Amino acid sequence: MKHINDHCGIFGIFNAPNAARLTYYGLHALQHRGQESCGIVTSTYDESKQHRVMPMHKDFGLVLDVFNASEIFERKLLGDAAIGHDRYSTSGSSNNRANIQPFRVHYRNGNLALGHNGNLSNARELRHAFSERGTLFQTTSDSELILHLIAQSRRRKQIDQINDALNQLEGAFSLVILTDESLIAVRDPNGFRPLALGYLGDPGQNGKTAYCVASETCAFDLIGATYLRDIEPGEILVIDRKGCTTGHFTSYPLPQRHGISQCIFEYVYFSRPDSKIYGEMVDKVRRKIGKQLAHDAPVPRVPPEEKAPIVFSVPDSSNTATLGYVTECQKLGYRCRYEIGLIRNHYVGRTFIAPGQNQREMHVRCKFNTVEGLLKDRIAVIVDDSIVRGTTARQLVKMVRKAGAKEVHFRVASPPVISPCFYGMDFPSHDELIANQFESIEAMGRWLGVDSLDYLTVDGLMTAVRTANENSQLGYCNACFTANYPVPVEMDMTKEENEW
Ligand code: SF4
Fold first, then answer.
1. Which of 58, 116, 226, 445 is most buried, judging by how many CB atoms fall within 10 Å of its CB?
2. From ligand 1's centre to the CA of 21, what distance in Å?
3. CB of 427 within 8 A of CB of 88?
4. DSSP structure class, residue 23
C-alpha cells in the first residue's frame, strides 16, 4: 500500500546510563513510521552551569544518517534520560527545519521537551486563541501548541500544568515528555495511536530499573527491553527516580462522549508485524485479516486441468495478510499456491525521474519488479493491504500482465478507503481517493486493468481484529473506511492548515 504515511514514531527512556544510544536504536526500529527527520533530546546535569540542561541533536534524514558520529553520543547527548522522534511531515512543511521534533523549551519550571505522534483535531481553534493573545510560534506544527498550553497554565506544579494542557486537547496524541526530573508518557483518551511501556533491568528494584516507552514494541526488542503493558487511553504515566506513577487526566469529558477508538489502520498497514500494539501481535491480527479476506473474497475457482492460481503479496506490508489468505483459501478448498511474484527494492528514496518519463510508472518500477518466468501463462492473484490512490496498483497490474500472466485478480485486505484521516495519518484528500472516483468496484477494477477486484468488508475487518485480539475490550476507529469519525473533525481543514 502506498501514499499513506504515518506522521511519526516516538521513544523515551529513563534511568539508563546510555539513554541516547538506546533511544537511537529505538528510533531506528521505528523508522518505518517516519523517514523525513528525526531527533533526540537528553536530560543531564551540567557541572559548569550548575543546573540541568537538555542537549539536543536533530536533522532531516534517517536515524542512521543523522546520528552518524560517536561524538554525538559521547560528548553531546549525555544523561540517563532521553526522548526521540521519527517524523514524516506533510508536503507543506517538509522543508521547515523548525518542525523537526522533539521540541525543547525552557520556561519558568525548567526544561521541557516533547515528542508527539498524532494530530490535534482542535488545532485550528487553539492556534486562533493563542494568536489572539499575541503568542509567537516558532514552528508550523500542532505539537507546539501543547508546549504553549503547558507554559501558559496558571497552575504552579509542573504535573498540574501538563494535566491542564492535556485537558484542552482533542484528537490524537501519544506523547513523550521529558522534564528535568521525569519522563512522562501520555496517550489520548481515545487511544488513537499506540504507546507501550517496557523496562530494562529488574522491575522490582527501584533505582535500578530503566523504563522505556515506544510507539511499537519492536523498539523494545532491539534494545533488549521487556514489554510490560500498553499506556492506557487517557493515561498519564510519570516515570521518575522513585519508579512509575500512573493516573488519568482529570475531568476529561472525551472518553464518555466518544469512547475508545484505537486506529485500526495500525493493524492493517502501519505497524510492523513483529510489534505488539493494543495488547496483541500485529502478525497475529494481520494473518487473521488475511484469513477473513479468504472468506469475503477467495481466489477464483479454476477447473482441474488449469494450473493452480499463484497468489503473491505487494511487499512488504501485505506479506503477512497474504500468508493468512492463502492458507485459508486452501482450507476452504480453493486451489492456489503462495509465491513471491514481486520483489521490492528497499533502497528507493526520492527517485530522480528524467524529463519525459512517466513519474508514477518510473517510481513504481524503481520500487518493484516481477519475477520472470514465474507468472508466464498463470492466473495471478495480487494481495495488497489497501488501495488509496490506485496509481501504484494500476502500474503493478500492468507489470504483472507484461510478465505473462494470463489473468490478473486483485484482492485487498481492507475495505475501500473512502475518507481522509484527521488523527495523524497523511492521507490524500477525499477526491483523490480512488474509491470515490468510481460508481462501483467493478468500474474501479476495469480502470486498474484486472479481471476481478474484491475487498474485505468493514464487518469482516472488525470481526478479524476483534477475534484475533481477544485481550482488547476497547473500540477502534475505522473512519477512513466508514467516514464515521469518533471525534468531531473540521472536514474543511487541509493537511497544510493542520500543520499551519
Ligand atoms: S481515520 Fe483511519 S487511519 Fe485515521 S485513525 Fe481512524 S482508522 Fe486510523
1. 116
2. 32
3. no
4. H
The structure's pTM equals: 0.93
Contact call for residues 199 and 192 (beta carbons, < 8 A):
no
Cis, peptide link before residue 415, omega less than 30° from 0: no
User: Residue 255 C-alpha to ligand 1 middle, in angstroms?
Assistant: 17
Does 487 sit in the ligand 1 pocket, CB within 6 Å? Answer: no
Whether the CB of 264 sits within 6 Å of ligand 1: yes
> Does residue 357 carry a pLDDT above 70?
no
Which atom of ligand 1 sits closest to the CA of residue 478?
A: 7
Which helix (H) or strand (E) segment is 99 a member of? none
Residues 6+ apart with CB under 8 A from 51: 45
Mean model confidence pLDDT for the chain: 91
Q: CA 55, 56, 60 angle in degrees (round to 5)?
A: 165
Residue 356: per-residue pLDDT = 58
192 lines ligand 1 (CB under 6 A): yes
Q: Is residue 417 lining ligand 1, measured as CB closer than 6 Å?
A: no
CB atoms within 10 A of CB 207: 9
Do the Cβ atoms of 321 and 290 come closer than 8 Å?
Answer: yes
Which residue, judged by its Cα, is nearest atom 2 of ligand 1? 480
Q: Is the CB of 117 under 6 A from ligand 1?
A: no
Distance from Cα 142 to the centre of ligand 1, integer Å: 18
Q: Is 480 in the pocket of ligand 1 (CB under 6 A)?
A: yes
Atom index in ligand 1 nearest the CA of residue 264 equals 7
Residue 240 main-chain phi, psi, to 5 deg: -140, -165
Residue type, position 214, single letter: A
Residues in the chain, overall count: 500
Q: Which of 423, 429, 474 to mutate to test the pocket of ligand 1 (most atoms within 8 A of CB)?
A: 423
pLDDT at 429 over 80: yes
CA distance 140 to 94: 10
Q: Residue written as cell 511501556? A: 197
SS3 (DSSP) at 34: coil
Using the CB atoms, write b or e for 41-64: b if 16+ within 10 Å: bbbbeeeeeeeebbbbbbebebbe
Residues with a catalytic annotation lie at: 8
Distance from C-alpha of 478 to C-alpha of 418, rounded to nearest angstrom? 11
Distance CA 159, CA 163 (A): 6
* pLDDT, tens only, 80-105: 999 999 998 643 366 789 999 999 99
